[in-house]
Amino acid sequence: MNMLESVADDLARKALAVPGTADDDKLIKAMAEVMASSSSTLEEAFLTAVRIRRAEKRALAVLEKLTAG
To answer: How many whole angstroms separate alpha carbon 10 and alpha carbon 36?
Structure first.
């Protein structure tokens, strides 16, 4: 993982760890706006990391449901 991906993923993990972030994009949007003002590249990588982490969470839930019991 390169530096950009590492920073973006770290920020995404921290943002998604905040209670309520899974259903409310206010924090994600605020962070993305701050990033966009100085690095559109980091903003895009962050938003991609958020989407990936959310998709991972949904996929793991399905896996758990289908393999339980």
So the answer is: 17
